[in-house]
Amino acid sequence: MTGKGKQQWNSITYDIFLWIFTVITDLFFREIHPRSTWRIPRQGPIIFVAAPHANQFIDPLILMRVVRQDAHRRIAFLIAEKSMRRRFIGFAASLVGSVSVGRALDSKKPAKGKIYLPDPEGDPTLIKGNGTDFTDGKMFQPGGLLVLPSVNSTAANSEIHEILGPNELRLKKPFKGDIALKQLTGQDIGEGNGHLPGDHAPEKSGQEFEGTSFSAAPHVDQSAVYDAVFKRIREGGCIGIFPEGGSHDRTELLPLKAGLAIMALGALAENPDCGVTIVPVGMNYFHAHKFRSRAVIEFGAPISIDPKLVEQYKSGDRRGATGEVLQIVYDRLTAVTTLAPDYDTLMLIQAVRRLYNPKGERLPLPMVVELNRRLIKGYTKYKDDPRVVNLRKAVLDYNRTLFRLNVRDHQVSYAKFAWYKVVATIIYRIAKLGVLSIAVLPGTVLFAPVFIAGKTISTFKAKEALAASTVKIRARDVVATWKILVSMALTPILDIFYTVMLTWWTNKNRVGGRVPEWVPLWLVAMSGLFFFPAVCFAALRFGEIGMDIFKSLRPLVLSLNPTSSNTLVKLRKRRAWLQEQVNDIINELGPELFPDFDHQRIVSDPSHPLYSPERSRPRTPEHGRDGSGDIDALTFTPATPPPAQSQRSKHTASDGLPRNESFGDISKVGIFASRPGTPNRTRSRTNSGDGFKFGSKGFGFNGFSPIESKKSDMDEVSRNLHAAMRERGRRRTSEDEAWEESTEGDDGVLTPSTSDIEPEEAKKDL
């Protein structure tokens, strides 16, 4: 086969593989929403840098699918050599041209003896050992790693620079962090002590500290990997890399590996005209490990490497050049990802995001991600402000109350409806649940082994991955992968088994005489191959709707007593007060953090002096035209609603009880994933549909208007701006007084002294 023919065959194989897995990922995820794919260059070599790597083998599948559909390009991903050794994963990865990468930590082994720091302050790179043999070339090599015992799911490691003797070596860099320092000097670091059972901390045992146990990993030669990457770049192809070095389930980014910078700088050093760019990609998930969860894949502005950095790299200062490139990439990644310092902060931000919605509008999924990102940035800056501290306590207590009652935030609004309407809704939903149960039962029974095995095996694999990892917290990043792999293996087996049994039963007695004699066996077999997957499919889809209905029954029952003693009524009043506090604090601090906050807000505030109905629609943020991706340089365009959004928006909570189930969308298959499309071509971001447009780029121009016709509008804007400034001044002066009027509620959270506050309509959160 010629080179061109082989390339065409590889492209066909890639597309078939991707089509199959697109069906599977669409079944697993409720929604996969790409954002800003217009930023992907249509020509030239690209290095896609994606983070955080929260979903092991699912992340590359989703990114491949989005880039292929929206940019018509194919990606060759770097994959760990350890994963390539797995039979199915290695075969699948080879079909799409993946490049195998060896990782030192995958080869780490417990080492003989113990190590310690003899002079932590004067010479922190010098390591000495007791009972060690650093001259063992198979175990210890320059460029290899020393790894300390794991503490709080993190194990410190450092690269070996030079072997000085059997009991002495020098590191390239000192171990990072106070915990590593304490481990190597024998200090107590609390529970677990940061040492293995055979180690002794001197202050507890009274003995002289002999050192801490450790592991070692050999040096891995990556020259073949770089050769494969440079070849792909020379051909104008795309490379995909997860620069954190492995999947994890943390809420923040791990330190980026230098490999991505070396690939870009090395390719440009070899050929300055190759035109390679780096495209940052944010993998934003909502409960990544759960079935029917959601994802937003956001693309940042392409990064072109400064020629000065390439010259710096070629002149020998590789560390400085790669470090600067890594910092640029890290900054751009933070602009397209939602990062929180810990899980509790992320839960707090999501709760505040649900409360911060003055009009009770349902935001498009990308807006939810953008709002989370901005709230995290604001919280990081103002978390020590007394108002923010008090609000955090109140919101977390409200969250705990919801969890205790097994009620969701959007269901708190049920408390406002008349009892007869609630009773009628309960009866209706129970009846619907009964109908759905009948539809779900056959598939649940027939394919129960898939559900049980998927849950069991994914849990086991998570424990296995957690034991082998130095960065994972609960190893949720492998759960979705194994659920899908188990389903892919067992579902066809069960389908074939049930089809064979049906054919045998038909041949024996025509299924008890229910199948006519004129129906041939081959038709029965063919029908079975389609019928049983359809039954499983119905169980998944109707089961999802039925679960939504089932979860809505408890808050409806709680709301049957529409008096002030009702728990849900009290909770509704607390929510109203919290919503008011959240909006006040954001309106107060927002202008200090973001320029032109009042004009560029995601959620419009109808009570604000600058509010106008024309601007009340949620707006889509677009990172600055300069390509910096800085969140402070946001401009906005009207959002494009997802399919049928306009129809859904006509039904609000004020029309009746909030609806969280529907049969209407089942016909809109898309394999049951509502995926709003992203334009495949660059378009005018002004959304000026009436303007004159020309050319393939779709530039838009509006007609010019006389300056005189705008004078009255400018005067009105000026008056509104002055009114807003006066209002903000009044809020600052009355701030202390407003907080003093708050009293301590019966349930231990701050509640207002008045009880006649009516909350805004609560909508179901995404």
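[next item in queue]
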Amino acid sequence: LLALWSPPMKYHLAVAQYEHLGYPAGFPDPEQEHYTAPQLTPDTPRIQLRLAGDKRKHNEGRVEVFYNAAWGTVCDDDFTIHAAQVVCKELGYLEAVSWSPSSKYGKGQGPIWFDNLHCTGKEKTLALCPSNGIGISDCKHSEDVGVVCSDKRIPGFKFVNTLPNHNLDIQVEDVRIRAILSSYRKRIPVTEGYVEVKDDGKWKQICNTEWTQHNSRIICGMFGFPGERKYNARVYKMFARRRKPTYWDYAVNCTGNEAHLSSCKLGQGTSMKPNETCPGGLPVVVSCVPGRDFAPTPMTGFRKAFRQEQPLVRLRGGAIVGEGRVEVLKNGEWGTICDDNWSLLSATVVCRELGFGTAIEALSGGRLGQGMGPVHMNEVECSGFEKSITECFFNKEALGCSHEEDAAVRCNVPAMGFQESLRLSGGRNPYEGRVEVLVERNGSLVWGTVCSDSWGTMEAMVVCRQLGLGFASNTFQETWYWPGEVSADSVVMSGVRCSGTEMSLSHCLHHGAHLSCAKGGGRNAAGVSCSETAPDLVLNPQVVEQTTYMEDRPMFMLQCAYEENCLSSNSSQAPANSYRRLLRFSSQIHNNGQSDFRPKAGRHSWVWHECHRHYHSMEVFTLYDLFTLNGTKVAEGHKASFCLEDSECDEGIEKRYECANFGEQGITVGCWDTYRHDIDCQWIDISELKPGDYIFQIVINPNYEVPESDYTNNIMKCRCRYDGHRVWMYSCHNGGSLSTETEQTFPGLLNNQVTHR
């Protein structure tokens, strides 16, 4: 059963893995592919193109031309988007997106074959564009041009080998691993089988006489697997005897560090006669090793979450499995990588290290949110065969690097088919709607709704991730305004409780077959809306450490704070002329995410507090707690968001939110909101606290009212010493910023991933 809507190509799935299932009744047949190879006159110079260099994606790179038995480059003089269009179409891509001068993808080698190109964009090959003439140039390799092509391929594009007996770039319509043995056919993901190439609309096998382990490594990487392994060749020999294979005309020659098969060279044509089998060989078989998060285990089935037992590297801030900002552990502290020289090769090393396949994209410029703490690595250069990014060459000096240059990755992950068992129904666009799940009932598969009791942000996050739609932006306990499929009104899942890291809603805790839902389904079913981006609030620990002090304040000056429950429970018996001892500090809360932080409640539902004369857009925005060293809470406070606004912003970013005159509240990306130490409730009441050593803790957005890309950094902890007269605050740090060993010296909560309902 296929989902009727496929998400944006942000989440690349190997659709061919499911082609054998066919299409549901009434589903339109796929469009027939039409591609006509260009007809060139005999006097047209025969060239071949490829994209090379320090690439971040397989569909971009330095333009290289093969002519006269040598690879060379193209000069950027007079180069335009029209020339880029010709390059991309000649390589089988639908169109050009952009081009870059001045050797952005590194300096090439060999001749500079083209200079002063004047293309109209309609030429069938770059060789037909007017230029100085092939090989006539006054350029240096510092002027080598690069292009970025669209992700989409020309339907039915067929590689035409115009230069026989030379290794060329492979251009294929599609590739798949087809499970052959019955023991692998029902397994998800597909890890072993024939490697098949779609050629002229037909799936063909590859002859294994020239196949290498490097080729298998690239195939496995494309399908989301970090490595390959040996398989039982005898069984496949028997199968090939019974069913005659149809072979592809070419051999493949990969070096082993490519991110995609399209970067490998196409070997010499096998020039087989009709009906001839692969002489002395068999169809290529690969057997891939799935990463730990996708490997079936006898005891538990698939691993239910993708929490990495991260040794030295982790991903943060990504919406889906296998993407995020790259962070490395050094000297017990997590830090980021500067994007100088960041390439697809280095990104692939990270992906494989974390149990994913090759990299789809190497992202730069803090595209998946900015980190905190140090920048540990700069100018990273990998060969592609390293076991860890920490083994690659890098510049230890990160001078001039800021978190605006944090590197990130998107990795190929195995096609698990999770999207097939979940859908959003009735929404105004594909990013919203009532949640409907596919479950087995009485031996048949039926669609139904999810009970909205206890439905919250964490559950919605899992739904959006499972569908490849990014982050949750809102959760809904009523969906009467989204009329879904009437046949799917019945509740088929209840009691859903997610930690937020699961890959599928079915992996969350739920009631199973014993449903319990007082509200019922239909109009009261759970719903979500998703967004490709989310905010990420992070507290500045240095500001807390530097601004902490104590104040003894008379009770008669604390009446408004008392009404808002900002004092300890014992204060209700305190006489008006007594004093309360307050531990005061400032909070500077940054939005390091990709979208603005806005309160869930609209202005019409903000609560007016007469005493303080202001509105609360979130009743509990932050929690303040003091714990003993064994984790027992001894004092607490909280702060409502009476004013979420942009106090200051990074250079070049304008403030958007201001509380004055009942203005819009929020925190813009790249800005921060400062709650000064001298405002009401910006404290913990420690009047009854005994002298000793404590853990001080702040949690932002503790009830997950507003979805964020990363909740682990919403917590901040400090060591605190109180001798009855003075207070010291030291070793302040954000959750997840230190190694597990260092973090364990701080008792209490490790991060903000805790049960909150």
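[queue empty]
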